[in-house]
Amino acid sequence: MIEYSNVSFIRDGRKIIEDVSFKINKGENWAILGPNGSGKSTLFSMLMAYTIASKGSIKAFGVEFGKGNWNRVKDKVGIVSSTMDKFNEVFYRQSVFDIVLSGIKKTIGIYEEVKDFEIAKTREYIKQFSLEDLEDKNYRNLSQGEKKKVLIVRSLISNPEILILDEPCASLDLYQKESLLKFLQEIEEETNIIYITHDINEIMPFITNIMLIKEGRIFKAGLKENILTDENLSNLYDLNVKLEWNRGRAWVKLS
Ligand SMILES: Nc1ncnc2c1ncn2[C@@H]1O[C@H](COP(=O)(O)OP(=O)(O)OP(=O)(O)O)[C@@H](O)[C@H]1O
Questions:
Q1: Fewer CB within 10 A of the terminal residue: the chain, N end or C end?
Q2: CA angle at residue 29 from 26 to 30, to 5 degrees?
Q3: What ipTM did this prediction achieve?
């Protein structure tokens, strides 16, 4: 589905991403871990063409960046990240229903005539993902967790083949975080997920693969059971860590 080959991103002489190669196949859900500033968001923002690689090639859904119509790729990728916060001013004026509906149009806000089938599809998604109690509410009045859910459903309505979630649980309290994680476990069959996080305990059972990024390079990548080990995480963070597994999730202890 997605293949990066020897991708680098260099700014002001600094190698932010260096010679990164990997493949993401259909049916895989990836969690991306790495210290602050290691390049996680930059690496995946290339799929939306928010960042353009300085070297190497990126292929997705049969299109090579720079050689084919990348809009076809963007149509297949959904993203929910704090970069969307810049649209808050527009979202704040809208109801949850309209925000989900705008996901069909792939616009921030609704500027075109809305068709009956689009209203029906929005109703279906609101119902399927249990947002009925929120649908008439103004976005500005939602909790942080509810806002994230609404933006995720807004992305899902365009049937993305890949959904990038960049630290979706940041700043959520324990209840909201667990509620969002349960929600993600429920939606994971709808799409393939790329989940960028700092919290190892957010790596839910549906995550199949892990990529560890350090200083702009892939430190380790592969199946979750092979990568999420005490040794790899200790080396990634330069700390002695020990993982404890509970209900299919790993919890970190310092040792
Ligand atoms: N367009 C750009 N121009 C210059 N520097 C950039 C650009 N994009 C990213 N960077 C820098 O690249 C580094 C990696 O940033 P990035 O946001 O990808 O890291 P991250 O691993 O997602 O970090 P965090 O976990 O803290 O969110 C940072 O030092 C950032 O300032």
A1: C
A2: 120
A3: 0.94
Ligand 1 neighbour 248 (Cβ under 6 A): no
Digit-coded pLDDT (tens) for 69-105: 999 999 999 989 877 777 777 888 899 999 999 999 8
Spacing, Cα 114 to ligand 1 middle (Å): 38
Ligand 1 lined by 36 (C-beta under 6 Å): yes
Which pTM does this prediction carry?
Answer: 0.91
Burial class (CB in 10 A: 0-12, 13-18, 19+), 252: middle
- The number of angstroms, rounded, from the C-alpha of 249 to the middle of its chain's C-alpha atoms is 19
CA 160 to chain CA centroid, Å, is: 11
Nearest to 31 by CA among 188, 161, 231: 188
Ligand 1 within 6 A of CB of 42? yes
* The two structure tokens encoding residue 162: 């890949």
Query: Within its chain, how far is the Cα of 86 from the centroid?
Result: 17
Q: Is the CB of 216 under 6 A from ligand 1?
A: no
CA of 213, closest atom in ligand 1: 21
Of 42, 83, 197, 217, the one to substitute when testing ligand 1's pocket (max ligand atoms within 8 A of C-beta) is: 42
- 126 SS3 class: helix
Joined together, the tokens standing for residue 67 give: 């050689």
Rounded-to-10 torsion of CA 65, 69, 75, 76: -50
**Cβ-proximal residues to 223 (8 Å cutoff; 6+ apart), any chain:** 208, 209, 210
